Structures are given as C-alpha cells and as structure tokens.
C-alpha cells in the first residue's frame, strides 16, 4: 500500500491494512473506525474506489484523518463523519463497509444497530479482535456468506480479516469452521496452522472441563493443516 503526495511516496507496512485493502470494492467505501484514514486514502489512490466515508466515534482520530486526507489532496473524494458505527452512513450510500480493529461484540453491535444500512451493503469486511466465531455466526444469521478470509501474523499476534457478501440459503458451518474459518481451513493457511499449535499449547494450562471441546476441535483440525 503506497500513499502519494506529489513526489512523496509512503509505504504503509501494516499487513492488516494490506489484507483489508485487498478485499475492498467500489465505488464507495465506508471505513468505520477510520483512525488515521490511511485505508480510505490508499483505496482512492489505487483506484479501487471513487469515494469514501471515513467515520469515527472520536473527534481526535477523525481530526487526524482529516489532516491526512487534506495532505494527500483527497478532500474531494473522502468525507469524514463523526458518530458511532454506521450511524453516520445512509442506507445505500456505501457499497463496501469496513469495520476493523474492534472487539467482535462491538462489530456485532454496530451491524445489528443499523439493519437498514447493512441490508444494502454489497461487501462487508470485518477484522474483529476477539469473539471471531461469534462474528462468523452473526454474519450468517444476518444473511452474509463469508467469501474469503485472511489470517495475518503481525508482532507475534494473529489477526483475521473476513470478507462477506449477502446471499440466500447460507449453509451453516461446522463447529470447527466457525472456530477457525472454513476458508482458512480449506486453504490450509500456514498462519492458521501456527495459530492452532499455539492454542493447543495454551490450552495445556486450562482444566479439561473448560477447554476440552475446543482442544478436540483444534487437534482434529491440525491433522489436515
């Protein structure tokens, strides 16, 4: 991901941002919890989208995003909006929505709070920090099929980026697929294998009654990774 301003080029090195960007479609992106605004800026510069809404609940990060948008001369393509989740977005205004870097339950709360906006999304990209299986289940429950996932390893932590699109008659996942991601299991993702191995090591310190079912799923999955 490269940000350009005249002769200035800046490489954004976050693997998470790169993974999210790879799933973005146009013509309009709503970046929820935009923080510095780099995702929207990069998507515009690379011609992936025509315009973007950079939204954040906090005035501080939004002000920083405004500075960056102005610095890269994208005021006419990216507008900033203050508010919680999808509250600042009108139904049908953005075809692609990104909700990244938040807890899974917060992601779910944002989606469930604005069903009219969610109903008109063509592609939803989420990167929940926690409760990822619950997010997958909620996406299915809201009529979104998971079309792809990427697991990113960054600073010795693992992050999952999920791309979903509306679809009828979604087949529910198995327990293993909700826990680890059907797409990641199918691709035999190398980061997923390392994640499973680490989880199994961590579960050694947890009583069998608490971690037994999870451990069984992980051990079975590891055989095929």
Task: Tag the structure with descriptive keywords.
10 helices, two-stranded antiparallel ribbon, seven-stranded mixed β-sheet, 225 residues, Rossmann fold, single chain, 42% helix, Helix Hairpins, alpha/beta
Q: Count up the domains.
A: 2
Cross-sheet strand order for the largest sheet: 5-4-3-6-7-9-8
Q: How many strands?
A: 9
Please state the overall shape, judged from the principal axes of the Cα atoms.
globular
- Give the strand content: 25-35%
Helix-strand pattern, N to C?
A: EEHEHEHEEHHEHEEHHHH
Determine and state the CATH class of the largest domain.
Alpha Beta
Mean pLDDT: 92
CATH superfamily of the largest domain: Vaccinia Virus protein VP39
The number of helical elements comes to: 10
Span between termini: 30 Å
CATH topology (level 3) name of the largest domain? Rossmann fold
Largest sheet: 7 strands, mixed
CATH architecture assignment of the largest domain = 3-Layer(aba) Sandwich
